[in-house]
Fold this protein.
Amino acid sequence: MLTREKVIEILTEAGVLQTGHFCLTSGRHSANYMQCAKIFQYTKYAEPLCAALAEKFDHIDVVIGPAIGAIQMAYEVSRQLKTKNVFAERKDGVMTLRRGFTIEKGQRVLVVEDVVTTGGSVREVMDIVKSCGGDVVGVGAIVDRTGGKIDFGVPFSAVLSMDIESFEAEECPLCKKGLPIDKPGSRNA
């Protein structure tokens, strides 16, 4: 089992933890950004983090994550659980299953996401699973930026939970200071 200290060490070594002025995928602003995509450049980071997450769930039929950030994560978590994985992606701005991916009625599905801030993408994926007749039995993340405050209505587990402050754009103190903003996320908010 990974300790909190070891997880932070891995994320720091991988270059995940960043500071500055960021517009998050959710549209919120923050002085901190978690570029979890960097984890998946190297199996030495991805494997132990995804294994730690997989240990928290059992009896899973399918692992699904939203593109782009959770494609490799869904694969690695499913590899650890020895089960099928798929990903959801946007088509015309709407999260959907494509590429012939399916979720069968009654399948036990784990939804994964690299970083959770507001949970918007996770909820969209949960809706897809439910519309297919699948049973969302849990949500897993590498990083929970809410410090455990988010509720998906199913068991939620993160490898690392931190309360990282974020702001609505209109309320952002970094914007008020005139600091330049970086938008490293995977979609336009």
